[in-house]
Backbone:
């Protein structure tokens, strides 16, 4: 089967003789073996037989696929929903604490806590985005804690302190919200003043609050123990109608009727279900069919109620809370149940809701890290304090859940507002010695959490502002002389006030949990990334970590985000993404040695190694560009439109290396090289060229560009295409170096199997802001070069500058070709390539060489010969230097011999000094001749002979050379043009005529570039041929393929 590296597979040795016959395409004849005429293989291209990709690759893919491996389904272990919730949340919390401990002990952690850890590990973009989200979450959490404080105050402690009181029952909720707004604002002001005074006062108050919380917890355990020793201790009774739980607000006794003075009378409960207190009143059907019963709300630790409470009992909104073990007679009509005093679900309950409700109780693990700047030894305090706190709270939470399930009746546990126990706190009823211990403990717990939020959030914002990654936040980096974040505290108080004015944060609370989870997620990722990269600076003192634990913690955080609320998770990610992009484009550039850079380096290394294993597939081939620029005397870019064209061709995809060469050594040109690189980078930014810049210093331009072509890129990420400008002033320049460098560059790209693009009149090419109207991009496909000519217009039309241009493809038919069949084959080939283009076949019949062509060739050769004769022979100049050097040395030697007698006169001594200086200068000039001159002398043949010249030999040789030169000038006017040059000039003239005739008005003309002659003596003629070929055309792109197929018909 054919291979990619051989683009013309079906060409056999027997076919080569038929690829070219005639003089119309003589300009391309030297490369006909590798680049055949399109007309000779167009039929094969249209019928797939000359393409390199296809059957084999698909067959190999099929062979590589082994039998499908079947996986056995994995069944999850049985687990109750409540314990599962506890396990995943507490596991996530502990894993996050382990990751945070590892990062916190890997160096000094100043103010900023979690933000500092993430930003220094994952970069300023991730750190800023997650840090700001975490700041908003902490700030709104502070407002939630303050609202919780006020709710406990007005509901359980001093209900009479309410300013707004509801006249109707349905207005009670609105009145409570208004009271919370007023008292919440006052509480926020008081807490802000405490934080403003200083963090030491917050720490002192924290001890008081902590003592109250500990007493509350001990009271709960004491109450649980008491129920074990007093099993018949009646904490509270629950009234059931059938199996339905009743709201115990408007009746005192759980009875339908009772005996008073031997008279049966109805109770208040009767009035709730019947239309009158009379015994013959019409009552609710369910009330009539079922009896009322009384059960203990807290039966005690030894009651065995845990067997009923261990399984979940979720239900929809409005579902009645029922005791499944009680007998019940269902009623036919249930439409009136919603108006009866039953305890019912106010929301739909499910497992993920339980996770969302429980999660805020573990969001305080960052409280210590947020105040890292105030800790004496953050590396020691953060790991010990955080892990011990999590271990303690984990024990308390799990034991509390188990003990509550073992002591409290299930219907009471599912009674959200405690309606079945007259609206009291169920935990307060359980606690010993008094419910007030729980009330006071809850009050101070909310106060302490609010103070912690108001203390940590401003310091977090101050750390972000001082880093300068978000420009408009820099004002919040200032504070008091002792470093207290005054302005940040003011902003935090304002955001908290917004939350308090909303009063009901039920809709906002989920997104706050998302912000916390996102912070924990990135803390775990930061630890895992640093561990896997094994950077030399990653040396945490905390040793009990592993990257697998960090990844598990990150996975749990991400899972919890979507388990709790998938749409709020997406909103949180969108907010973080917007902040990330803002910091990326507007934020200050910071280099903190973060893990993302290390990850990028490792990923780049891995990708480069993979790329080097095999050449890219034809389907993945795109121009990886090496752009060769010329600089002016100020080291500015001469042709910035070349950068624009590269941008339009690449559209930000693939590799772009912009290179240039300065003559000299790097030791003497270091400053100029850096200046040139800065100028090129500035031009690349202006022209929106994404890529790399590389400027080298070399003894001459030819060698410098050769080095770039050979060494630019790294591993598999190397260029495959060279783009350069046409040397438009090569005729006007007396120095042939420019066009010789150009031709050598063409030869070296061909030898390196790289494509070459040469843009003529590049200064007239459109800029990135131009929008070309209706026009055409004309492709003149003369010889097959791997399909690059057809791929380039497609890539250009992806850019908005060329989007409206149509593509036209012209190919040339000779005398023996069937032009009609060629057009059909070309249309079929383009159809399979999925390219939309107009097709035209231009016939170029064999014709006699015109007198104009003959005369033009003669003038070209005469001009070339005259330029050679007008130049002073370098060999003659060196011989002259050698003669003067020998003469001077002989003179010096004679003078030295007579110097002992002291007979020299003053003028003769001055003359000898002058001669010595001239000789030294001549020797210096010869020794510092450019490397290009040495190469030219290497080609000089027998003339390049070193010998010592006598004066007579020198004069004889110079007269002989001059005589030969005079003979050469006389021979110029008698010379006849070389027949090969005439045929090549004929091709250039004829092809130029048809191209100008068809494509003079095109926006861009793409044309096969003939290769330079194998005999270097015809280099100047080659430039003349190209000049004639391009005459009369404005924007031209000469294209040479790299020796492989770059476009395929297969998907």
Residues:
């Amino acid at each position: 089967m054919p291979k990619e590296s051989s683009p013309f597979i079906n060409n056999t040795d027997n076919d080569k003789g038929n690829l070219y016959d005639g003089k119309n395409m003589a300009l391309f004849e030297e490369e006909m073996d590798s680049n055949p005429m399109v007309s000779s293989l167009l039929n094969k291209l249209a019928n797939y037989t000359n393409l390199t990709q296809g059957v084999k690759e698909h067959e190999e893919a099929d062979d590589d696929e082994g039998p499908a491996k079947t996986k056995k389904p994995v069944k999850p272990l049985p687990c109750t929903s409540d314990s599962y919730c506890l396990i995943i949340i507490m596991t996530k919390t502990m894993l996050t604490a382990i990751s945070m401990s590892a990062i916190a002990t890997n160096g000094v952690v100043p103010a900023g806590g979690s933000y500092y850890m993430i930003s220094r590990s994952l970069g300023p973009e991730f750190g800023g985005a997650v840090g700001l989200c975490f700041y908003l979450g902490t700030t709104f959490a502070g407002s939630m804690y303050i609202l919780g404080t006020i709710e406990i105050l007005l509901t359980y402690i001093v209900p009479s302190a309410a300013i707004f009181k509801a006249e109707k029952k349905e207005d009670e909720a609105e009145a409570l919200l208004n009271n919370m707004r007023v008292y919440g604002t006052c509480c926020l002001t008081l807490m802000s003043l405490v934080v403003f005074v200083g963090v030491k006062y917050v720490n002192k108050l924290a001890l008081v609050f902590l003592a109250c919380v500990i007493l509350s917890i001990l009271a709960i355990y004491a109450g649980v123990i008491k129920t074990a020793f007093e099993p018949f201790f009646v904490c509270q009774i629950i009234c059931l109608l059938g199996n339905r739980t009743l709201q115990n607000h408007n009746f005192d006794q759980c009875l339908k009727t009772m005996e008073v003075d031997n008279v049966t009378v109805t109770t208040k409960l009767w009035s709730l279900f019947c239309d009158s207190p009379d015994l013959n009143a019409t009552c609710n059907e369910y009330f009539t069919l079922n009896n009322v019963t009384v059960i203990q709300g807290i039966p005690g630790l030894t009651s065995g109620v845990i067997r009923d409470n261990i399984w979940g009992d979720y239900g929809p909104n409005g579902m009645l809370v029922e005791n499944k073990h009680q007998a019940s007679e269902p009623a036919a009509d249930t439409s009136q149940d919603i108006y009866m005093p039953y305890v019912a679900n106010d929301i739909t309950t499910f497992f993920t809701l339980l996770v969302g409700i429980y999660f805020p109780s573990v969001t305080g693990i960052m409280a210590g890290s947020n105040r890292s700047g105030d800790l004496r030894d953050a590396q020691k305090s953060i790991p010990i304090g955080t892990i011990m706190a999590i271990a303690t709270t984990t024990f308390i939470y799990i034991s509390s859940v188990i003990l509550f399930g073992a002591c409290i009746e299930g219907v009471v546990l599912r009674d959200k507002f405690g309606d079945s126990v007259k609206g009291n706190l169920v935990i307060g009823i359980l606690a010993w010695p008094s419910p007030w211990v729980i009330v006071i403990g809850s009050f101070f717990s909310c106060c302490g959490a609010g103070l912690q939020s108001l203390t940590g959030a401003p310091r977090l914002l101050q750390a972000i502002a001082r880093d300068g990654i978000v420009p408009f936040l820099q004002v919040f980096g200032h504070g008091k002389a002792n470093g207290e974040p005054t302005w940040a505290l003011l902003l935090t108080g304002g955001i908290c006030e917004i939350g308090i004015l909303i009063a009901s944060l039920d809709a906002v609370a989920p997104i706050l949990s998302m912000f916390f989870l996102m912070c924990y997620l990135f803390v775990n990722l930061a630890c895992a990334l640093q561990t896997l990269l094994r950077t030399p600076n990653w040396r945490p003192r905390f040793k009990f970590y592993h990257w697998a634990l960090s990844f598990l913690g990150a996975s749990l955080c991400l899972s919890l985000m979507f388990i709790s609320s998938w749409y709020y998770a997406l909103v949180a990610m969108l907010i973080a993404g917007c902040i990330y992009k803002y910091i990326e484009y507007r934020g200050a550039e910071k280099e903190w040695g973060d893990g993302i850079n290390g990850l990028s380096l490792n990923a780049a290394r891995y990708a480069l190694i993979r790329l080097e294993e095999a050449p890219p597939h034809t389907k993945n081939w795109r121009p990886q560009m090496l752009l060769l620029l010329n600089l002016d005397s100020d080291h500015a870019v001469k042709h910035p439109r070349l950068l624009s064209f590269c941008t339009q061709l690449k559209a930000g995809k693939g590799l772009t290396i912009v290179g240039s060469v300065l003559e000299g050594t790097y030791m003497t040109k270091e400053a100029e090289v850096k200046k040139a690189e800065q100028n090129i980078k500035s031009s690349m930014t202006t022209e929106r060229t994404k890529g790399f810049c590389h400027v080298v210093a070399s003894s001459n331009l030819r060698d410098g560009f050769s080095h770039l072509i050979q060494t630019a890129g790294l591993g598999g990420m190397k260029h495959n295409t060279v783009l350069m400008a046409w040397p438009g002033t090569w005729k006007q320049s007396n120095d042939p170096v420019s066009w010789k460098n150009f031709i050598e560059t063409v030869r070296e790209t061909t030898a390196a199997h790289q494509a070459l693009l040469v843009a003529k009149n590049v200064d007239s090419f459109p800029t990135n802001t131009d929008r070309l109207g209706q026009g055409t991009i004309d492709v003149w496909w003369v010889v097959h070069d791997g399909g690059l000519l057809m791929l380039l217009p497609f890539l250009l039309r992806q850019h908005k500058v060329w989007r409206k241009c149509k593509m036209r493809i012209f190919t040339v038919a000779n005398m023996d070709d069937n032009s009609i069949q060629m057009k059909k084959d070309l249309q079929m080939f383009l159809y399979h390539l999925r390219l939309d283009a107009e097709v035209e076949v231009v016939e170029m019949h064999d014709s006699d060489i015109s007198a104009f062509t003959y005369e033009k060739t003669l003038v070209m050769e005469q001009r070339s010969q005259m330029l050679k004769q007008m130049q002073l022979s370098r060999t003659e100049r060196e011989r002259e230097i050698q003669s003067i050097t020998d003469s001077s040395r002989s003179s010096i030697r004679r003078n030295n011999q007579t110097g002992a007698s002291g007979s020299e006169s003053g003028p003769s001594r001055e003359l000898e000094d002058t001669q010595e200086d001239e000789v030294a200068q001549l020797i210096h000039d010869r020794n510092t001749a450019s490397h290009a001159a040495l190469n030219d002398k290497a080609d000089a043949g027998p003339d390049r002979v070193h010998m010592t010249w006598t004066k007579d030999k020198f004069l004889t040789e110079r007269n002989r050379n001059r005589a030969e030169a005079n003979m050469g000038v006389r021979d110029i006017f008698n010379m006849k043009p070389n027949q090969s040059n005439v045929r090549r000039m004929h091709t250039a003239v004829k092809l130029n005529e048809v191209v100008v005739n068809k494509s003079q008005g095109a926006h861009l003309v793409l044309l096969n570039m003939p290769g330079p002659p194998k005999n270097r003596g015809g280099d100047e003629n080659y430039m003349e041929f190209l000049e004639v070929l391009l005459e009369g055309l404005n924007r031209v792109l000469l294209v040479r393929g790299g020796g492989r197929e770059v476009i395929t018909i297969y998907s």
